[in-house]
Amino acid sequence: MRRKASLVLLALAVFCTALSPLLRWYAFPRLAKIPANQYQDMVLEAKDATLLDYGTMTAKKVPKVTIVQTLKGNVQAADKVEKSYGKDVVVWDSLSYVQGPDGRMVSKLPERYIFDAHSQEPVHAPGEMVDNDPVKRQGIEFKWPFLTEKRDYVYFDAQTRTSAPIHYEGTQNFRGLKVYYFEQTIPWTKVAFPKILPVEGITAESIAKTGTTRWYTTVRKFWVEPTTGAPVYGEEIHKEELRGGTLLGDKDKVTAFSGHVKMREDYIEHTVDLVKSNRTLVLLLTSYLPWGFLGLGVLLLALSLYLEARSRRPADPEPAESSAPEPVTA
Questions:
Q1: What is the largest CA-CA distance in the chain?
Q2: Separation of alpha carbons 111 and 132, rounded Å
Q3: Which DSSP symbol is given to 201?
Q4: Scanning 68, 79, 233, 264, which has its CA 20 to 30 A from the CA of 174?
């Protein structure tokens, strides 16, 4: 009976030990993915910012500029791309909407970002765009890969429509989470005017005829939770200028926007709570279950060997039977 039990335990030990690396290296890359229907929004603010008054073409100090960013998963578009490319794909339709202190629109920048649901690598498919201009992204945008590494990544900048390194600058603690801090600097670069401008009758084409150009620079900062690859906080030191042309009159340049953009506190709290929840799910496949099954396999193996050793131990000798004394005859 002990021999049978030890064999059963040995089989279970082999199963658990084999399941451990399968969960980590086979199941996790296939099961961990961004859902196609994900929706999220975020509000950022730049307090005491500088903003261009298009009516007078002068820069003015304002108490606050608000940026509302939304990401909406387009399931129908993702299904079409998946049929053509044969992989799990996510299509995010995003919008960055900037409004002044009076609630009026300053600018808005729509994007369509198509990427691999597992690796977050961009997928180049019809419809990929920034402000309705076709683009071909290189590198990541919005989200880092699962199990983010301590290294530089290539990050796509929507304003310039180009990609550049975003540098790993160290590990920090943010609201109880271990995070990796990344920073990217985009130098002054001439960029396109938004398709939709805040003043009626002024278009990107009409400004272009005046010879005035738009320039932009930013320092982009992200604090990324490495297990999920999700940013829990972000900032930008953002500057825009209009330069040259007849639109500015006798001015060489004028500030269109300048401000230190930060996530609003309520959205920080919501993001941290969401990332903590998702982090537990990822750790189940990458750490808790693989190590748990490995430990269980070792325990079962030890128990199996113990029972096998007990079954092979020689039995104690049986006591000799005592015979009754025979009667003595005379």
A1: 153
A2: 7
A3: T
A4: 68
Burial letters for 239-272: b for 16+ Cβ neighbours within 10 Å, e otherwise? Answer: bbbbbeeebbeeeeebbbbbbebbbeeebbeebb
For 99-247, where are the alpha helices, taking DSSP H only? 204-210
Is 87 within 8 Å of 81 (Cβ atoms)? no
- Whether the full predicted model's pTM is greater than 0.90, yes or no, is no
pLDDT in tens, 15-68: 888 888 888 888 888 888 999 999 999 999 999 999 998 778 889 999 999 999
pLDDT digits (tens, 9 = 90+) for 267-310: 999 999 999 999 998 999 888 888 888 888 888 888 878 777 77
In which residue are the tokens 């969401």 written? 274
Q: Do the Cβ atoms of 130 and 95 come closer than 8 Å? A: no
Helices (H), the chain: 2-22, 28-31, 75-85, 204-210, 265-283, 289-312
CA distance 191 to 328: 127
> Which uninterrupted H or E stretch holds 43?
strand 39-53
Comparing CA positions, the residue from 221, 220, 202 lying closest to residue 212 is: 202
The number of residues in the chain equals 330
CA angle, residues 80, 83, 84, in degrees to nearest 5: 90
Identify whether the C-beta of residue 49 lies closer than 8 Å to the C-beta of residue 83: no
DSSP lists the bridge partners of residue 66 as 45, 99
Which of 295, 251, 188 shows the shortest CA–CA distance to 57?
Answer: 251
CB 109 within 8 A of CB 240: no
Distance of CA 17 to the CA centre of its chain: 31
